[in-house]
Amino acid sequence: MSTLIKGLYIVKHWFGDVIFRRVFKNAGFLMSGKVANGLLGLIYFGLAAHGLGVKQFGILILVQTYIQVITGITTFQSWQAVIRYGVICLEKKDVLSLQKLIKFTSLLDVVGVAFGAIIAYICAPLIAPYVGWSEEVVAYVRPYSFLILFTIVATPTGILRLNDRFDLLAIQAVVPSMVRVIGVVLAYFLDAPFWAYLLAWFVAGMVSGLTLLVMGWLEALRQGWLYTLTFSLSNLTAPHRGIVKFAIASNLHSSLLIVPSHMSTFLIGIVATPTAAGLFKVAREMATALTKPAELLTQSIYPEFARLGGRNSWQDFARLIIRSTTVAGSLGLIVLVVIIVLGKTFLSLAFGPEFVSAYWALVLLVAAATLTIAAFGLDPAMYAMGRPSIPLTVNTIVILAVYLPLLTVLTPRMGPAGAGVAMLISSLLIVTSMSLMTVVVLSRRAKRQ
After folding, report:
1. How far apart are the C-alpha atoms of 319 and 308, rounded to whole Å?
2. pLDDT confidence band for 219 (50 / 70 / 90)
3. How many other CB atoms are there within 10 angstroms of residue 335's CB atom?
4. In sequence order, what DSSP letters do the residues of 386-432 get, joined into one string?
5. How many CB atoms lie under 10 A from the CB of residue 402?
6. CA–CA distance from 335 to each of 30, 291, 320, 343 (Å)?
7. Cα–Cα distance for residue pair 16/14, rounded to 1 Å
8. CB atoms within 10 A of CB 321
9. Structural contact between residues 174 and 33, judged by C-beta atoms closer than 8 angstroms
10. What's the rounded Cα separation, in Å, for the pair 243 and 70?
11. Main-chain phi, psi angles of 121, to 5 degrees
């Protein structure tokens, strides 16, 4: 008991640190929206599962995942560049360079979504035979591909995060889920066909993108960054040394992370069945909803790392990593215990008895996500230190050499649980490797002072 009290006292002392407190405060803003978003997600996924049945639900998930995979591969995560270089511009009060930065990342966004929509439209009939899509489903997928055009939100997202407007991001997070719930409820009670559920997803995605787009650019206007903005595209990268390399590396890294997240669902549909993909998606959505703090903390801690790195405050940098890892890892373990005890009951109540077979996949995915939660600060730390190639390299090796082979071998034999085993092993390897690399790079930075 005394050890527990001492631990709580230490954590209370940590929260006296302004930076540490701000990380969790901003994550709390996002969490308020994501909690509501998660609850709404359980409603629309549960209704869709009950309304369509496990097979058609699996097809719906594969269509949605197809678009997410294409979006993730073709679009740039330019919000990372907005924060990385935007912090430097703000510290120098260099509005002109900041405007060039925004124009450059916006150009990346436009090119990415246009290319993605074209690829998704063209490839739909080519992919269909491998995932069990009929001609009717392909006819739905092609117009659904234009949803990618509404994902042109990376730069507005970066603007909001750069200005600590996590309150607006929390509000925006709820909007698409509310729209999707309304659409799915109507489809369910009207006993609507498959396309009605797909339409609900499309409208929700469109509203989500437009809302974030408006919020981001209004914030830029409020900050006074747009008053003297011109349409000139000359020398956009000149003030930002290494930004092209940074953008390419961050895009490759984010594209690679699509494999264990969205693409894994799609691959299961290929090597197994749409039903198996649907079961895995249910397990993954629950795991993601319950472990969302990792992603939210990553979003809120990155600007703080960027500021500390810009000031060469490496001791504070290391302290923030250690403290955040301890708190987040403890929360992850609590979530894992809850899932082990109540997972089967929840799957049965929320999705139906036929979805209980996703239990072991759920437990394994939450265990993998617990590792990710504990190490949530490592990737943004590397980006803030200007070393995006390290997480890219680590993830490339582990995902291609370990995760994909295990996924393709274990899933046909073990079903969704096989994919869970692959995820857990690869997560353990990634976290271990990234921890060692972070210690090495941070030690070298500290010695240079």
Report:
1. 11
2. very high
3. 18
4. T-THHHHHHHHHHIIIIIHHHHHHHHHHHTHHHHHHHHHHHHHHHHH
5. 16
6. 18, 7, 23, 11
7. 5
8. 22
9. yes
10. 24
11. -65, -45
The contacts of residue 387 (CB under 8 Å, 6+ apart) are: 441
Answer yes or no: are the C-beta atoms of 142 and 156 closer than 8 Å: no
pLDDT band of 24, cuts 50, 70, 90: low
- The Cα 432–Cα 120 span in angstroms is 36
Find, among 97, 212, 81, the residue nearest to 156 by Cα: 212
The answer to whether residues 308 and 19 touch, using CB atoms and an 8 Å cutoff, is yes
DSSP 313-375: -HHHHHHHHHHHHHHHHHHHHHHHHHHHHHHHHHHHHHH-GGGGGGHHHHHHHHHHHHHHHHT
* Structure tokens belonging to residue 213: 């787009």
- The CA angle 248-252-254, to the nearest 5 degrees, is 115
The predicted-structure confidence for 145-178, as pLDDT tens digits, reads as follows: 999 999 888 899 989 988 888 778 878 878 888 8
What lies within 8 Å, CB to CB, of 376 at 6+ separation is 293, 294, 295, 297, 298, 301, 324, 325, 328
CA distance 336 to 369: 9
Give the pair of three-digit tokens for residue 153: 């939100």
DSSP secondary structure letter of residue 240 = S
Q: Give the CB-side neighbour count of residue 130, counting CA atoms within 13 A.
A: 13
| Predicted TM-score of the model (pTM) | 0.67
Burial class of residue 138, CB neighbours in 10 A (0-12, 13-18, 19+): middle
Q: 311 Cβ partners below 8 Å, 6+ apart?
A: none
∠253-256-260 over CA atoms, to 5°?
A: 130
State pLDDT tens for residues 273-310: 777 777 777 787 777 765 565 555 555 565 666 677 66
Cβ atoms 311, 323 nearer than 8 A: no
Helix extents (H) in 75-165 = 79-92, 95-131, 135-144, 154-162
- Mean model confidence pLDDT for the chain: 81
Q: Which two tokens stand for residue 413?
A: 């034999």
The two tokens of residue 361 are 């996949």
